[in-house]
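To the wet lab folks,

You asked to see what we're planning to order before we commit. Fair enough. Below is the target structure as tokens, and below that is the sequence we designed to fit it. If anything looks off to you, flag it before the synthesis order goes out.
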């Protein structure tokens, strides 16, 4: 396990090693309901419920210290993380899911279960095999 200082140092070291590309290319997120996106950095998003989420991924064009967990199975949050709860009020089983970044990461994440967020870039997280209640769930972000 890393402590918050180690995580922050790794993030900073990663940003330095990336050089200008990190700062010049805008951060992008994509959602895939059918496996990883080649050439992107992906984290598996396996919702415990509903079904069909076993091969879903949130991917970025930059290497971020990003993690997904369902607190129903893994309630041990690492120190130094900033997390966004991925909630869908129409489905109580979604209340336990969260997407996290190391606290030193220059990115703000916002979850919306009712459309995009003004002033932020957003990506729809929709599994075609799921119920229609999920068709307005977005992960939004901004770099700072």
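Sequence we intend to order:
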């Amino acid at each position: 396990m890393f402590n918050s200082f180690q995580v922050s140092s790794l993030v900073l070291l990663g940003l330095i090693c990336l050089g200008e590309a990190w700062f010049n290319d805008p951060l992008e997120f994509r959602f895939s309901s059918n496996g990883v996106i080649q050439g992107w950095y992906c984290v598996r998003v396996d919702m415990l419920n509903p079904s069909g989420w076993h091969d879903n991924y949130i991917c970025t064009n930059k290497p971020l210290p990003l993690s997904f967990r369902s607190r129903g199975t893994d309630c041990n949050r690492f120190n130094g993380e900033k997390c966004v709860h991925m909630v869908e009020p129409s489905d109580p089983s979604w209340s336990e899911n969260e997407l996290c970044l190391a606290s030193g990461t220059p990115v703000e994440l916002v979850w919306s279960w009712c459309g995009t967020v003004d002033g932020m870039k957003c990506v729809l997280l929709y599994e075609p095999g799921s119920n229609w209640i999920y068709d307005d769930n977005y992960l939004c972000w901004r770099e700072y």
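Structural context that might help your review: Confidence is low (pLDDT under 50) at residues 1-20. The helical segments are 4-18, 20-24.

Thanks,
Computational group
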